[in-house]
Amino acid sequence: MTEQIRILVVDDDEIDRLAIRRAVEHSDLGAELREAATADAAQPLLAHRFDCVLLDHDLPGITGIELTRMLRAAGDPTPVILVTGTHDEDLLQTAVDAGITDFIPKSDVSPRRLALRVRFAIRIGHAEAESRRSLAAATLAARAREDVLAVVSHDVRNSLNTISLAREALRQDTPDSAQHYLGAIERACNSANRLIDDLLEASAIENGGLTLARAPIDAVAIVRQATADHALLAKETGGEITAKLPSSATVVSADRDRVLQVLNNLIGNALKHARGAPIEISLERSGPEAVFAVRDRGPGIGDTELPHVFDRYWRGRNKRGGAGLGLAIAKGIVDAHGGRIAVASKKGEGAEFSFTLPLAPSAPATRSS
Fold first, then answer.
1. pLDDT by residue (tens digit) across 305-314?
2. Which residue from 48, 35, 52 is spatially nearest to 100, judged by alpha carbons?
3. What angle do CA 306, 309, 314 make, to 5 degrees?
């Protein structure tokens, strides 16, 4: 059996209340109706559950919009329909901002139209309630995940530190023929620490907790540092890494360490997949932005993989190494700067990852050292 709809009418005009009452009675709502002439008289009634409130704005004392604002501030999600004789757009916008669900002109209060409006408002109210429940559940789950991640990362780091200390203690007593085992332990510890850092970073980005220390910085100097930092590793793989830079300093408004982190992630990704092929890093100005690009001549990325490369835990391109967080973190950092990141690739023709950062205001064009 369907539960009866309960409606509260708040209007100081007895004739208007009568018109609404008759419209409800002659509609197919089959609703239970309660009435109040003022907001003060309505407030005790609102302590009971109603499916919808039909509300006049021009009430004595507290207006209809003020009453709605009070309901929303108290966490009351009851759908409210403003029954109004005005067509003032500013007033209607104020009503929406206050939390009014819908409107109906007093001149249009017929049984059928009123029933349609009431059902529509109730449907919106149910959808909003479900959205709030889903958001609350998602927030709770995210907080629980953060708590678990914080505890696990702390405990795992402690274990890794203990392993590292034991490795150092064993170094003096380990013969040269077995030193490579200690090297393997060191690499595994470093890899585990990087994974923990990536997980914490990805969580901070997802929850809007990424912090930036923005300042005017020379992008040319950053690209040169990133190139130099990876030159030896590129050489070990049989390739080379080069930089194509403007002759003048390109000053961007950014967090230096974060930008370097993005470049490191993109270059590391290129080294992983280039398989000894050349890698080029470029920097250029484009209007109010600086455009960074990392190009490799590796196997490229298939069309089906391209839409997913910035997804967390995505490990395409032969799924070689890593947890699939580096590119997602790079995107989160670029987004936090107000920039854009993109990828272009064709299978067998390498890949190009590019991102933009805003130029610093009134950045002087000086010669880069």
1. 888 888 877 7
2. 52
3. 125
